[in-house]
Design goal:
The protein is mainly alpha-helical and 106 residues long. It contains one helix and no strands. The model has no long low-confidence stretch (mean pLDDT 84). Keywords: Membrane, Transmembrane, Transmembrane helix.
């Protein structure tokens, strides 16, 4: 009852690749061949980036815009958390006063 029933697979599914025969190679002792001298690869030609006053101004403006947008999003999230905390605190005070006045009536 508590033994798992394992499914049997009579035939493999999918495509099968034929097995390949690996032929072993023999190693003959001898003199090792000297390694070929390494030729350094030529450095790729990359033009230097030159900032003109116009592109520098665009980069500064774009960075400023990104900082302002991210700051506005973070401040709005902080404000949402603060409003939620205040509303939960007001609900807790209302419930506490209702429970306290109900206990005094008994």
């Amino acid at each position: 009852m508590f033994r798992p029933k394992l499914p049997t697979m009579p035939q493999p599914t999918g495509t099968t690749t034929p097995s390949t025969v690996v032929v072993p190679t023999t190693i003959t002792p001898g003199s090792p061949t000297p390694p070929a001298p390494a030729v350094p690869a030529p450095a790729p030609y990359r033009p230097t980036v030159q900032l003109t006053p116009g592109t520098a101004l665009i980069l500064v403006g774009g960075g400023t815009a990104v900082v302002l947008v991210v700051g506005a999003v973070l401040v709005s999230m902080l404000l949402a958390v603060a409003v939620t905390a205040v509303s939960v605190a007001v609900c807790a005070l209302v419930l506490r006063s209702l429970l306290a006045s109900d206990a005094k009536r008994r």
